[in-house]
Amino acid sequence: MATMQDVARLARVSVSTVSYVLTGTRPISQATRDKVLAAMAELDYQPNAMARGLASRRSRILGLLLPMDERGLGATETAFVTGAAAAAGAAGYHLVLSPIGVGDLDELRRLASQRMLDGALLMEVQLHDLRVDVLREVGVPLVLIGRTADTTGLSYVDIDFEQTVQEAVGHLVNLGHRRIVYVNHSADTLAEGYGPALRTRDAFTTAMTGHGLEPLMIPAEDSAAGGRAALDTALRQAPDLTAILAMNENAVFGLLGELANRGRSVPDDVSVVSMVTSPQVAELATPALTAMSSPGSAVGRIAIETLLRHLDGGRGEIQQQLLPCALEVRGSSAPPRTADESDTGAGGDQPAPGNEAARRRAATRRRA
Amino acid sequence: MATMQDVARLARVSVSTVSYVLTGTRPISQATRDKVLAAMAELDYQPNAMARGLASRRSRILGLLLPMDERGLGATETAFVTGAAAAAGAAGYHLVLSPIGVGDLDELRRLASQRMLDGALLMEVQLHDLRVDVLREVGVPLVLIGRTADTTGLSYVDIDFEQTVQEAVGHLVNLGHRRIVYVNHSADTLAEGYGPALRTRDAFTTAMTGHGLEPLMIPAEDSAAGGRAALDTALRQAPDLTAILAMNENAVFGLLGELANRGRSVPDDVSVVSMVTSPQVAELATPALTAMSSPGSAVGRIAIETLLRHLDGGRGEIQQQLLPCALEVRGSSAPPRTADESDTGAGGDQPAPGNEAARRRAATRRRA
DNA sequence: ATGAAAGCGCTAACAA
DNA sequence: TTGTTAGCGCTTTCAT
């Protein structure tokens, strides 16, 4: 393993020159730079990360703090991760994912106070997220993917739930639906103040009221069973419902199953729109789900870019951004059977023609 | 940020003594140790990871190399990760996940030759995985989760696909099924030599032949559409099929959807058993899927323990382990409708009574 | 535009 | 059982 000494010797320059070639922190003549670069190439030199970190007091490592529960990472979250990893790599940083949730504060404190992290991205942010406190305490810059309750002084990137709900409701209303039920996360989750659940609830009320319609929300446990129960409740409270908007990616499958059980066809009897859902998941259902698809890797990329700005400038400006979800119409939404006074606006939303989109996307997966 | 100097000064000992207290590499009297520990506590001392790494030439960082495609991490893979993270933490190591697939060899080479990793775990291992070569080249110890084609000199932990298939087939045969179709990964995937697909194919042939039955395998693209197509093929080739064994977690949903479309009820007309599937995913389906559930976090834990042994001893012995999947009977499997000569063995497999298991597991999920 | 040299905070000989 | 000290490989003043 060649060291900087070796490179300097071979190039007949001092170590500091080699260092400056590497870091670019001071002008080097083209001739010298070439010599050094040639020596590096010849020796296959790679700087020692630990030595750099010790001397410069920067590890060039960014942490992505990512709680992993038993349920796995959805395609949406995975896109965040890959986007962040790509952006970090492009900037010469390593992105390490640490499966650290709010339960592992000690592990986080260790990681952070050992000066192992130049900065951190937090995923699965809670309204009162103690990880934020720990990181601030030890002075590690951070950016949230999501939002805490109080975001003063915090940079974040999050999904624009208001826009997402509004567009989803708009789609259904355009199709002619009037009786739309919103299946949210569980009552417990709401009570805990889970941000997305609260924001979408309020946005749903606003959107429906704006259309002169009555907002009806049903909480559902995050499971297929929860979805089945939610459908039962929904049909009891709104027997005339023609459309369901679902925030709960797990429940939506139970919901679809129960609809089938009861002989209600999708989308002829009931339209279903799933929110913040990846194309992959949307197409597991039969028919494939019309969904608001999440902004994906852009979230991760923007978060990293924001974080880097916080490091470089010293005091980067606080940045708070909301990214929209895009409506992707598939087979699960259509005009209600009772096509009454449905003034389907010109250029309004069309139900997907067959399953072409699904077929097109049916790519092969290769792993081993 | 207190340094070791500060601790030594406060405890009135030398820095080396503090260091030895920390590393335990030489005996320290109880009195001294207590003094040092007290000083550490008082100063809230945390060793500087970079300095340790530089001086000791060990980063105490283990890498978990984990390709992330657009599909996300399944619950099964997530369990591997959390198991590994827990085991690494318990041993005083950091586990960093790097979303590095066979496409990012340069990034891997950088990570490895910068001496940032003491060792690595590889997930999503391909039969000819170039990451293995890169790591060996730079001398980073590694353990596979999965298997390459040639495993000589390599330690690995993998799922016992032979046992899994055998048990799944046994379950169906016990229920009285005779005409069982195996829905595998895609033809492309098989052609590429994807290990699990090949191993399960062969195991299926062995198992069926062992029962005096004819093995029929259908490849399916990894998507709902692929599952629908596979069912079509299956019914064409074996109109009298009463059971389906599925390796393809994505296809199985399309398969179920298409069964419903054709008015074939599960499990009355057709039993479905899903392989290497987490409980969470199994219960998204309606009815919940009988499945061979993967060993979960044990895989990750054992892999880390093996890796640590490779570091400590210098030359740890090669270890190759296969872990079994466990049969979990849910609602998707039952005796065939045409209960003919079905000699359901005493104590044989029973279909799940209702959905109690599902309901019990319907825990709340809290995130933000 | 380049070089010399003093650390960065810790580990691990080498001494005692 | 404990202390002294020479690095680990790099960055970054301070000189020139």
From TrEMBL, chains A, B:
It comes from the Bacteria. Residues 330-368 are annotated as: Disordered. GO terms for molecular function: DNA-binding transcription factor activity; transcription cis-regulatory region binding. Keywords: DNA-binding, Transcription, Transcription regulation. Pfam families: LacI (PF00356), Peripla_BP_3 (PF13377). InterPro entries: HTH_LacI, LacI/GalR-like_sensor, Lambda_DNA-bd_dom_sf, Peripla_BP_I. SMART domains: HTH_LACI (SM00354). The keyword NAD does not apply. Gene3D superfamilies: 3.40.50.2300, lambda repressor-like DNA-binding domains. Residues 2-56 form the HTH lacI-type domain. SUPFAM superfamilies: lambda repressor-like DNA-binding domains (SSF47413), Periplasmic binding protein-like I (SSF53822). PANTHER family: LACI-RELATED TRANSCRIPTIONAL REPRESSOR, LACTOSE OPERON REPRESSOR. This is LacI family transcriptional regulator. It comes from Micromonospora craniellae.
